[in-house]
């Protein structure tokens, strides 16, 4: 397990830690910048990836899946309504 200093209190924490166990800061070992921006999704502390609309890969996949599900529901409802109307 790799340890780095917390950006807020300086305590050594795992690079995978979501919060510092001492001071409670989110993403204690991650420093965001213009080159490595933070994901735009609220409460996500991962790095955004270029080409994914300012999101990390996990949140981008979730949003893409949710959009596909919405389109599928709209298509099925349209098909059902047209079937009932033109029966």
What is the topology?
Elements: E1 3-5, E2 12-14, H1 57-85
Low-confidence stretches: none
The largest sheet is: 2 strands, antiparallel
Number of domains: 2
Radius of gyration: 21 Å
Percent range of helical residues: 25-40%
| Average of pLDDT | 90
Helix-strand category? mainly alpha
Order of helices and strands: EEH
- N-to-C terminal Cα separation, in Å? 64 Å
What's the arrangement of strands in the largest beta sheet?
A: 1-2
What is the tally of helical segments? 1
Shape: elongated
Number of strands: 2
Strand content: 5-15%
What is the oligomeric state here? single chain
Briefly say what this structure is.
This protein has one helix at residues 57-85; strands at residues 3-5, 12-14. The chain has 87 residues and is mainly alpha-helical. A hairpin with a 6-residue loop joins strand 1 (3-5) and strand 2.
Written description of the protein model:
Strand 1 and strand 2 form a beta hairpin. The protein is mainly alpha-helical and 87 residues long. The protein has a two-stranded antiparallel ribbon. It is elongated. The mean pLDDT is 90. 33% of the residues lie in helices and 7% in strands. The chain has two domains: 31 residues; 55 residues, no CATH class.
Features of the shown structure:
single chain; 87 residues; mainly alpha; 2 domains; 1 helix; 33% helix; elongated
